Amino acid sequence: MVKHTVESCSKAKMAIRDTLDVVGGKWKLVLISVLRSGKKGFNELSREAGISPRILSKELQELEMNGLVSRKVCDTKPVTVQYELTPYSGTLSEVLSAMEKWGYQHRNKIVQGVE
Amino acid sequence: MVKHTVESCSKAKMAIRDTLDVVGGKWKLVLISVLRSGKKGFNELSREAGISPRILSKELQELEMNGLVSRKVCDTKPVTVQYELTPYSGTLSEVLSAMEKWGYQHRNKIVQGVE
User: Sorted alphabetically, which InterPro entries does this protein's record hold (chains A, B) (predicted)?
Assistant: First the structure.
């Protein structure tokens, strides 16, 4: 058990905020989890994650800027674009698996509460 | 290493989305991390987390609705209200500590990249 002092708490608060600045919001972690199954085209991503193209484009730009997703223009006719996770995005696996676990247990708790 | 199949990925995606529905957004996890140091009044929370009262009130209501924060009206003059974490909020500790760790390492990475 870590002791909660004012100083350690404000450091922790800042670190959590840093993380939320990069992967917070409604979509970024969902996009990362969708891309874990392999690279995808823009429309495919939009469909699988259920995000409108306008928002998806903005989210992907931000993920790219933070080195989590890479964008590859393929020399096809017409030109196609593919998005894939960078190796650096692997550093988020602990965050993702903790959220995944919590999501499961929270859903179970609610389902049990309703029965 | 967990194998990523279509089925396990869509389950994982749903669980992550469930978690984001409850604690996603800009403020909820920050509020929870602020409340980890003990119960707080409304103005204190607003100041410490740097959230406007209007948004804070909405966020606290949602956290209360999901059983993560409890609101206690104290019989003082004038009446004061205190917010504190519920025991259930403790189930989020793994999510919080993973985000804290990631925030630290990401900040270090950026600082090193700039130097």
Answer: HTH_HxlR (IPR002577), WH-like_DNA-bd_sf (IPR036388), WH_DNA-bd_sf (IPR036390)
A6: confidence class by pLDDT, cuts 50, 70, 90: low
Mean pLDDT of B2-30: 81
Residues of A in contact with B24 (CB under 8 A): 24-26
Q: Express each pLDDT in A34-80 by its tens digit.
A: 998 899 999 999 998 889 999 999 999 999 999 999 999 988 888 88
Q: What residue ranges do the domains of chain A occupy?
A: 26-114
Is there a contact between B30 and A15 if contact means CB atoms under 8 Å apart? no
Class of CATH domain B25-114? mainly alpha
Contact A4 B96 (CB under 8 A): no
**H/E/C letters for each residue in chain A?**
CCCCCHHHHHHHHHHHHHHHHHHCCCCHHHHHHHHCCCCEEHHHHHHHHCCCHHHHHHHHHHHHHCCCEEEEEECCCCCEEEEEECHHHHHHHHHHHHHHHHHHHHHHHHHHHHC
pLDDT of residue B1: 47
CATH 1.10.10.10 fits A26-114, yes or no: yes
Residue of A27, A45, A99, A104 to mutate, interface with B, max B Cβ within 10 Å: A99
